[in-house]
Amino acid sequence: MASRLAQVASHFTSSSSKGLLKDEVVIVTGAAQGIGRSCAIIFAREGAKVVVSDLDEKKAQIVVDEIKAAGGEAIAVGGDVGAEDFPERIVKVTVDAYGKINHIVNNAGFTYDKMLHTMPDDSFDVIMKIHVRAPFRLIRAAAPYFRVKGNTENRSIVNVSSTSGLHGNVGQLNYAAAKSAVIGMTKTIAKEWGAFGVRANTVAFGFIQTRLTQAKEAGASIVIDGKQVALGIPGGGKQADANKPVPGVPLGRGATPDEAANAVLFLISPLASYVSGHTLEVTGGAGI
Predict the structure, then answer these.
(1) Which pTM value belongs to this model?
(2) GO molecular function: any one (predicted)?
């Protein structure tokens, strides 16, 4: 019995030292900061070769440098995920560098909040473009590297949704519609690509402490189609105070980006080898 336990312990130690994602290639969009940055760093720590993609290539390169300094492997790819040439370009760069693609994490996005009766077409259209059309086009471009019969490697797609996509949210009709669409898209991928051993899942985040949930008064913004779009929520960020429990969240607090990224790690890792078509809610218990 003692010998058997020693063998199990030895096997566990050996597997752990290799990392959950050893030699797997992961594309992460919106990876220069927040949840995307945490995903890139944690995946690299688990042995993955990470393609760090972001609108701001200089910030993406900073993440790459951080990964390399820790002994990991990564490359930066700058660009707008909504650009017409983006999918083919990032797929080519990835395959040229690493020869394959194991996972795509469609994380890039932002909010452009308006009440329904005041929402202009462009604020609706751009959110759908970035959160629905862009992930669809990237996944489609990568199809030749996923739809491969007999490939037994760990391969998956993870699309980022939100509790707004599950329950709706005041002032976020565009965002809620897009994040709801992502769930249907993911389930369809799971059904179409399951025969190739590819899993597809969605992660729906609740309150995560990022620039999208900080106070809008802090002045964070992003330039989209030549327009300055303010990020955050009016009076936001107060929930990050550990001494002030977050109403409606049983755990009483917002999550860190690392906690959010760990949920994505689970979904792309072999630990979730029989999980597909699922929407994992990372909410601290909110919405139950």
Answers:
(1) 0.87
(2) quinone binding
* Bridge partners for 54 per DSSP: 78
Which of 267-278 are b and which e, b meaning 16 or more Cβ less than 10 Å from the residue's Cβ? bbbeebeebbbb
Domains of the chain by residue range: 22-210+257-282
Tens of pLDDT, residue by residue over 145-154, are 999 999 999 9
Catalytic option among 98, 145, 175, 274: 175
Both tokens of residue 234? 């009016």
Residue ranges in the chain assigned as alpha helix (H) = 2-18, 34-45, 57-69, 86-98, 121-128, 134-141, 163-167, 173-193, 257-268
Cα–Cα distance, 273 to 43 (Å, whole number): 17
Closest CA to 157 of 199, 217, 109, 108: 199
Take residue 55 and report the two structure tokens written for it. 């609108």
Q: Is-catalytic flag, 274?
A: no
Helix (H, G, I), strand (E, B) or coil at 103: strand
